[in-house]
Design a protein that fits this description.
By secondary structure, this protein is an alpha/beta fold. It contains 12 helices and 18 strands. The relative contact order is 0.08. The structure holds iron/sulfur cluster. Iron/sulfur cluster binds next to helix 5.
Length: about 425
């Protein structure tokens, strides 16, 4: 009986890709997946270390799985917490059999030491990432594809470059191979700083390499979607190529809009520039969908900064927004800044922004009632149009009889907050 593994993934879509790569290696090493940790010979937790709440969730999950595992089952912890806290984490969690950073993850879970190449790839596994390893077929009709690892920026609140390292862009051929092998209907391109793809390889790829890459992927799959677009790199060429596709979806990583506060975050831009970019996008595609994320309570945030963000949210009328409480991260620029915002005030501001955005999201959903849209059915009864990214936006409730993994044209008959309700369905 082959050995069985249970793999738990926490954190962001980039971690989902890392887990898929680990699964590729586990399956190649002859193990079988189980969704019951008590039946597994190997339990793997792919952790997140971005902010305090994510770290707490990682530790809670590790301890819960330690309880659930059977005697003799090996417990391996990998991912960002393992990379960022290595020995410290091992000392804090003696129940864990192995803490393995990115470059040791495959060896830790397959028991294959570095140097013994995994049969499916001849090249030694490059340092600090799993990027070019194979992965199993997707269980859903879409998949995340990570096009680069690491980040060369220095946003004041962010520790990611300290443990994911500098940006390393993958070869175009390796990315397109993976897209072909996945054979899904929708590819979601991800990286820490997606629009900077290629900048770290000036001779081979260069700045702007994301544009031909999107075109190449769009020739291979019906839908290509981009997440994590840094505002200053979203230039006309990139806006155009996204607007050329069937998914004019823009995930703008803005974080704030107040100029003085953005500079304190060591980030570019301001409300006026962001509004003008949004206007440019909507001039090119009136049906473009826009999402953004904002940090609330960054050190030094004033009432005026907060009011500027509230006003921007009103004016921008984005389809989707995430608002996150600032989390002080050891080793970041912001950790040493004065002007701490009290938690109660942070929560007040978060509640005000979320209430404002919920109304906007609901009214933009309401405006779609009576229209016909093309949806990809992810599972019986659940679909998404180009306007909804997987796992982070709303969904479209469709007729459960519509075939999953297929496109259908449906009629929107109702809106329920962020979600839509559709009737009918013609394959398309
Ligand atoms: S772009 Fe900024 S927020 Fe994003 S990973 Fe890089 S440093 Fe962190």
């Amino acid at each position: 009986m082959p050995r069985r593994y249970y793999l738990e993934t926490l954190g962001c879509p980039k971690n989902d890709v890392d887990s898929a790569k680990l699964e590729g290696s586990l399956l190649t090493a002859g193990l079988e997946a189980t969704d019951d940790p008590s039946q597994a010979d190997l339990v793997v937790v792919n952790t997140c270390a971005f902010i305090e709440t994510a770290r707490q969730e990682s530790i809670d999950t590790i301890l819960a799985l330690d309880e659930l595992r059977s005697d003799g089952t090996r417990l391996v912890v990998t991912g960002c917490m393992a990379e960022r806290y290595g020995d410290e984490l091992a000392a804090a969690l003696p129940e864990v059999d192995e803490i393995a950073g990115f470059s040791d993850a495959v060896a830790a879970v397959t028991g294959r030491t570095r140097g013994s190449s995994i049969p499916v790839t001849s090249a030694p596994i490059p340092e600090l990432d799993l990027l070019n390893l194979p992965r199993p077929a997707s269980k859903v009709p879409w998949a995340y594809v990570k096009i680069a690892e690491g980040c060369d920026r220095a946003c004041g609140f962010c520790a990611i470059p300290s443990f994911r390292g500098p940006q390393r862009s993958r070869d175009v051929a390796a990315i397109l191979d993976e897209v072909d092998q996945l054979a899904v209907h929708e590819i979601v391109l991800v990286a820490q700083d997606l629009a900077s793809y290629g900048k770290d390889r000036p001779g081979e790829l260069g700045a702007g390499a994301i544009v031909p890459l999107v075109r190449d992927v769009a020739r291979r799959v019906p839908w290509v979607r981009l997440l994590y677009l840094y505002p200053s790199d979203l230039d006309d060429a990139l806006i155009d190529v996204i607007c050329e596709t069937d998914v004019p979806y823009f995930d703008l990583s803005l974080q704030h809009v107040s100029k003085p506060l953005l500079r304190r975050m060591r980030r570019p831009g301001d409300a006026a520039r962001f509004l003008s970019k949004i206007e440019t996008i909507r001039e090119r595609r009136a049906d473009a969908a826009l999402r953004s994320n904002f940090i609330v309570g960054y050190p030094g945030e004033t009432e005026a900064d907060h009011d500027a963000l509230l006003e921007f949210v009103e004016q921008a009328q984005l389809d989707w927004c995430g608002f996150f409480a600032y989390s002080r991260e050891e080793g970041t620029y912001a950790a040493a800044l004065d002007g701490t915002v009290e938690r109660t005030l942070m929560d007040e501001r978060l509640a005000e922004l979320r209430a404002c955005q919920d109304e906007i999201t609901a009214s933009r959903s309401d405006a779609l009632v009576g229209t016909r849209v093309r949806v990809l059915v992810d599972e019986p009864g659940v679909g998404r149009s180009g306007r909804e990214a997987p796992e982070i936006d709303g969904i479209i409730h469709v007729d459960p009889a519509l075939a999953p993994f297929e496109f259908h044209d449906v009629d929107i008959v109702d809106a329920l907050g962020p979600d839509l309700v559709a009737s009918g369905g013609v394959p398309s």
